[in-house]
DNA sequence: TAGTTGCGCAACCAGATAATTGCGCTTATA
DNA sequence: TATAAGCGCAATTATCTGGTTGCGCAACTA
């Protein structure tokens, strides 16, 4: 219960990832979201709670309904963590580029 | 036990993320990795097994030692999932850009 | 006002996780 | 050859997780 919430742990669950995708299009209520999955509204509510705790989602009250909307900013944290790795695969790609360039040069010199 | 391995679930664990970062720099053995954490070699081995199962890491045998190296390619799956969201925050940034441009224009027209 | 709808919260449960401990196997070293 | 080092695997355990059910409360509606 008093588990520290972590954004990576939040997106580990497939249902929560799907919720984020749906909400990205348009803010939705728990009931509306639940219709997209094979689970109860309460289960969706729990997922929303987790997402809200790590600020990936924000509730917006409207009468007795609650529209949850995406907080895109927090998603950047994942992107930030990924950054150094992205750098690595970009470098590898450049290395491959060099190899190809060398091969081409050799062929031209034939 | 025969749980389907998922890359998002794999990076949900902080220790596993740390392992990926360490290995990104240089291939390492389970023992060497364990020294960086407050856990046993066996625990690290289990994490490596999870990472290997979703092809984030690849074992390379060398005598009685096993060097685990990063398989950078799989990391792209995370990047791919993130792509549409990145698009969203880029759009918001552009919208902000538009707002700033409009404000500037209005100021110039004064 | 009475009944319905949309929610969140608490209790409970089965299955998954991470970590420890104890092996046994293989490879290096004295 | 005997001993030590590096591993992976299996069994065990405490904890976490996702799901369901049953409330109770606030807000619409007939």
Number of strands of chain A: 2
Q: What is the domain total for the residues of chain A?
A: 2
Proper CATH architecture of the largest domain in chain A:
Orthogonal Bundle
Q: How widely separated are the two ends of chain A?
A: 70 Å
Structural class of chain A: mainly alpha
Strand fraction of chain A equals: 5-15%
Oligomer: homodimer
Please give the radius of gyration of chain A in angstroms. Answer: 22 Å
Described by the principal axes of the CA atoms, the overall outline of chain A is: elongated
- Helix share of residues of chain A? 55-70%
CATH homologous superfamily title of the largest domain in chain A = Winged helix-like DNA-binding domain superfamily/Winged helix DNA-binding domain
Tally of helical runs of chain A: 5
Which spans of chain A have pLDDT < 50 for at least 5 consecutive residues? none
Question: What number is the mean pLDDT of chain A?
Answer: 90
InterPro entries (chains A, B): ArsR-like_HTH, HTH_ArsR_DNA-bd_dom, WH-like_DNA-bd_sf, WH_DNA-bd_sf
Protein name (chains A, B): ArsR family transcriptional regulator
Domain HTH arsR-type (chains A, B): 1-90
Organism (chains A, B): Larkinella punicea
Main attributes?
homodimer; 110 residues; mainly alpha; Arc Repressor Mutant, subunit A; 5 helices; DNA-binding
Characterize the structure shown:
The mean pLDDT of chain A is 90. Chain A folds into two domains: 7-70, Arc Repressor Mutant, subunit A (Orthogonal Bundle), CATH 1.10.10; 73-110. Chain A is 65% helix and 11% strand. Chain A has helices spanning 7-10, 14-25, 30-34, 41-53, 72-108, and strands at 57-62, 65-70. Chain A has a two-stranded antiparallel ribbon with strand order 1-2. The first copy, chain A, is elongated, with a radius of gyration of 22 Å. Chain A is mostly helical and 110 residues long. Chain A is built from five helices and two strands. Chain A binds chain B through residues 6, 8-9, 11-12, 14, 17, 20-21, 24, 70, 72-73, 75-76, 78-79, 81-82, 84-86, 88-89, 92, and chain B through 6, 8-9, 11-12, 14, 17, 20-21, 24, 70, 72-73, 75-76, 78-79, 81-82, 84-86, 88-89, 92. The structure holds a DNA duplex (30 and 30 nucleotides). Chains A, B: Residues 1-90 form the HTH arsR-type domain. Chains A, B: One of its GO terms (molecular function) is DNA-binding transcription factor activity. Chains A, B: This is ArsR family transcriptional regulator.
